[in-house]
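Progress report, Aim 2. The chain analyzed during this reporting quarter is listed below.
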Amino acid sequence: MLARNNEVDGAVKSIVSLEKQFNGWFNYPVIFLNDQPFDQHFVDSLTPVVSGQVQFETISNSSDMWGFPDWIDIKKAKTCMAEQADRGIKYAGQESYHHMCRFNSGKFFDHAALKPYKWYWRVEPNVRFTCAITYDPFLAMQNTNKVYGYVMALWELGSTVPSLFSHVAAYKSSHNLPSSPLWKSFVDASWAPLPIRPFLHYLPGRDSHGDAWNFCHYWSNFEIADMDWFRSPEYRTFFQALDEAGGIYYERVSLDRSSFATKYID
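Predicted structure tokens for the chain:
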């Protein structure tokens, strides 16, 4: 769980619910991460409610884990954040939110506390599990050769990520990746006549064929996944390309797994 000291009540609420409905039977370890050291109140409040091993870890406050990478124009990034906030884009004006998006998109699985593990279940503060989970989802996914599980898919706000689809489509094209059925399900194909269609790629959010993204995406807040999938050369290369494009800071891009899954999961 990624949480801050002032989210202690929400963290307790989530873990109590998780323990009641699942982990009380399985006793899996729980790892808490924070970009600042956890205070004693947080530690004392969460330790008794976890049935398995519990760790309280700090994220390195550096460009590698939590901070602006070297290629980002910090002045431009802060100006873009202020402009996004003025347009009413939720959280976009908070610098820490952008750092969090980058960490969750391409850094968390390399944190020293997570390196010994293959599987993880992301849990947020202030969530509630409404029924008993009587089976082990990690084992179920392993036995059925699944690498990624999500709870919901819904529509993104296009104003938050105007360049994401163009960058993803360009990456797909430059790496000669085929259009899988999953990729096609996320694309809003252009109905313009063929002579006109190629010119549509000059419009924001279009690929070289003039097609657009239908804005469907997975909510990664509730994901269960194989971290070896994230640690693969394919994912690292993909993340690096989009990270260097700058949308995480100049827009409000968070690499929801949809972008990668549509190309690499059949």
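The CA atoms of residues 10 and 126 lie 4 Å apart. The chain has a mean pLDDT of 91. These observations will guide the mutagenesis work planned for the next reporting period.
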